[in-house]
Design brief:
Blueprint: H1 2-5, H2 9-22, H3 29-42, H4 46-57, H5 63-79, H6 83-96, H7 103-116, H8 120-133, H9 140-154, H10 157-166, H11 168-172, H12 177-190, H13 194-207, H14 212-227, H15 231-241, H16 247-263, H17 267-280, H18 285-301, H19 305-315, H20 319-328
Helix pairs in contact: 2-3, 3-4, 3-5, 4-5, 5-6, 6-7, 7-8, 7-9, 8-9, 9-10, 9-12, 10-12, 12-13, 12-14, 13-14, 14-15, 14-16, 15-16, 16-17, 16-18, 17-18, 18-19, 18-20
Length: about 325
């Protein structure tokens, strides 16, 4: 144990293996086996870790450590990119040991595995299981948030809003409370409730001034203003954001400001904002692509195709790529 505390893992591994040879049924044999699995995992010896954990997971003489081994075996599978095996292992754990003190952890990580595989329906179910079955778990608030996020990814907007509403006290006590306000706004905006979405974003912005969440909330407030044709307010908000501290926020605000000017019937003003993004913030490739797509399309609408082609050449983008960007992020209607 002293070697472990000093982080001398290979030496500790040798000593623990020797202990098990000398005392296979010793008082500390099960713990030694568990530690050998952990050391192997830490050293990247995942096959050896798998063997240790798999053998210990079926040990009925020490239920607590057997459950710990079964839990860590799932993570070994995940690290080996054997995600089907990891999902099966975690699912089996929940079925076999629903009252284990590790069950909420396992259920939460099972949801994460589904979410990362974009299996949002099963992710939503797994996260809701944590929020409902383990209300005192430290994961309960985050699980409810991610259940709502999974519902939004599925296009199940009512289920997204229901998850946020039903479990709001738990979410509010988590580190994701402000993100949840953004998510509520996203769900509402997705169903055309732009006024209610604006309120949700405004609440997030008010609770954390000067942070990333506040900037993100205000950018989305601008989108709501555009959607409700409150163009002058959108121009005012985006102009303020375009003078902010963070370069990425400024770049995104300029794209929005261009959208607002275009919606106000000022195409040259819109072009000015988008071209500024291309020349001053080209390092932010995703935002620059949005600006390029908008500017090129507007040049086409203004019967100036040569300028559109010049933009494509200067920025090394094909018209087809620009069409894709416009399709995914269209200009607002005037």
């Amino acid at each position: 144990w002293c070697l472990l505390q000093q982080d001398l893992l290979p030496d500790a591994q040798t000593r623990l293996a020797e202990y098990l040879i000398l005392y296979p049924d010793g008082r500390h044999a099960v713990m030694a086996q568990l530690q050998l699995g952990r050391i192997a995992a830490e050293l990247g010896e995942l096959e050896r870790a798998e063997q240790q954990f798999a053998a210990l997971a079926t040990n009925r003489s020490d239920t607590a450590r057997a459950q710990q081994a079964a839990y860590e075996l799932g993570w070994v599978y995940a690290r080996q990119d054997r995600l089907d095996d990891a999902i099966a292992q975690f699912s089996r754990f929940i079925s076999d040991a629903p009252s284990s003190e590790l069950s909420d952890d396992v259920a939460f990580y099972l949801g994460e595995l589904f979410f990362n595989r974009r299996d949002y329906e099963r992710a939503q179910r797994a996260f809701l299981n944590v929020a409902s079955q383990y209300p005192s778990s430290p994961h309960a608030g985050a699980a409810a948030y991610w259940a709502a996020a999974a519902a939004l990814r599925r296009g199940a907007h009512d289920e997204c809003l229901a998850a946020l509403s039903n479990y709001w006290p738990r979410i509010a006590g988590s580190t994701l409370a402000l993100d949840a306000l953004l998510l509520r706004g996203d769900c509402l905006a997705a169903v055309g409730e732009h006024v209610a979405a604006y309120r949700a974003y405004h609440a997030a912005a008010q609770q954390t001034t000067g942070s990333y969440v506040a900037a993100e909330a205000r950018l989305r407030m601008g989108e709501c203003l555009l959607a409700t044709t409150n163009i002058s307010a959108a121009i005012s908000l985006y102009t303020e954001l375009a003078e902010g501290r963070h370069a990425l926020t400024r770049a995104r605000a300029l794209v929005g400001l261009g959208d607002a000017r275009h919606a106000a019937g000022d195409p040259r003003g819109a072009l000015s904002e988008w071209l500024r993004v291309l020349y001053d913030y080209r390092d932010f490739s995703a935002v620059a692509e949005q600006a390029l797509a908008r500017a090129a399309r507007l040049y086409e609408e203004l019967n100036e195709p040569d300028r559109a082609q010049q933009l494509y050449r200067l920025h090394g983008v094909t018209p087809a790529a620009a069409v894709t960007a416009v399709t995914s992020d269209s200009l607002p209607d005037k």
